[in-house]
Write a structure and sequence with these properties.
Elements (H helix, E strand, L loop, with lengths): L1 H4 L10 H30 L14 H39 L1
Helix pairs in contact: 2-3
Length: 99
């Protein structure tokens, strides 16, 4: 897949099916990431008292870990997948220009 994203690549119109397959798989990754983020949020909510909203005693480490993981997902994996999809859209658009 990397060759399609290179500026030197001279892709052919029939390569669009490979690009679209990769885009579909990348979108599936986004759906799975959202499920992980939802599960983290659910667990995060259980760390706090419902009536006061304060962190339960002794669970600060869990809270910090989940905060770090949410940050890594949002600004690491999710951002990379979004950039990848954007690059695929750009290349696909260039291929459609050949048709």
């Amino acid at each position: 897949m990397g060759r399609f994203l290179s500026d030197d690549d001279k892709s052919n119109p029939h390569d669009n099916s490979d690009i679209m397959r990769c885009k579909t798989e990348a979108n599936e990754i986004k759906v799975k990431l959202q499920a992980v983020k939802d599960k983290l949020a659910e667990h995060e909510d259980s760390l706090f008292y419902e009536n006061t909203g304060k962190l339960r005693t002794g669970l600060g480490c869990h809270h910090n870990f989940k905060s770090v993981k949410r940050h890594e997902i949002k600004y690491g994996i999710e951002r990379d997948v979004d950039h990848f999809i954007g690059d695929l859209d750009r290349v696909s658009g260039q291929l459609l220009g050949y048709l």
